[in-house]
Amino acid sequence: MTKYIPRSFSRLKNQIDGPEAAALAFILMGILIAVGGYIILYGWGSFQIIVGDFYANIAAELISIAITVLIIERLNRRRSENEEKKALILQMASPENAFAIEAVRQLGQRGWLSDQSLNDAYLRRANLSDAKLSGADMRGCNLFASNLSSATLSNTNLSNANMSNANLSYANLSGSNLSNANLSRADLGYADLRYADLRDVILNAASYNSYTRWPTGFNPKEFGPMLNFVDGTKNEPAS
């Protein structure tokens, strides 16, 4: 019978399933009964008031049921999304790099990297080397001792994040917001921090080298012993 169904209705049928299909059926039944009741109301003379009220009540009940089904379905879908999001963030904190990178990819596809889902996320000791986190909203994240080497963190909001003891060597942090972030004892060798917001950043015992790029006007020597200049500890980048 499917081949006799109009194409537009067939496409709609394929897209709607489960509770949504049931809700749609209730709505259609409610409309049909309401219309039928209206016809009977004006066609049965003395019985028009009784019959009209009967059909109006049935139509209202069916539409009410449909609305309830849709609300429950929406709540279940939202609950399922929240559970999936929590699972992916937990996966992102994995010490296994490939596992963590896949979580980042899926979070990005769903738009959960930039919608505040990662705010205050617990990502201690995560292996996010080479992760693509450009533009992510990671305010208040706990990234203590995480491996972010060669990660793309350009234009990422990391304000108030705990990145102490993190490996940020070769990381692209250009344009990122690091205000009030804790970078104590972090490795900033070869990192790109151009245009980054470093207001009130904590840099106690953080290390850098001559290849570390800083924002215009930022002089790491002014931080004295807070920033450790360490050069020659790693292979120089190819020229």
Kindly describe this structure.
This protein is mainly α. The chain is 38% helix and 3% strand. The chain has four helices and two strands. A two-stranded parallel sheet has the order 1-2. Helix 2 (19-41) runs antiparallel to helix 3 and helix 3 runs antiparallel to helix 4 (97-109). The model is unreliable at 1-6 and 233-239 (pLDDT under 50).
Q: Widest sheet: strand order?
A: 1-2
Order of helices and strands: HHHHEE
**Could you give the distance between the termini?**
69 Å
Main beta sheet, described?
2 strands, parallel
**How many distinct beta strands?**
2
State the helix count.
4
Going by helix content, strand content and strand pairing, the class is mainly alpha
The gyration radius over C-alpha positions equals 29 Å
Key words describing this protein structure:
disordered C terminus; mainly alpha; disordered N terminus; two-stranded parallel sheet; 239 residues; 4 helices; single chain; 38% helix; elongated
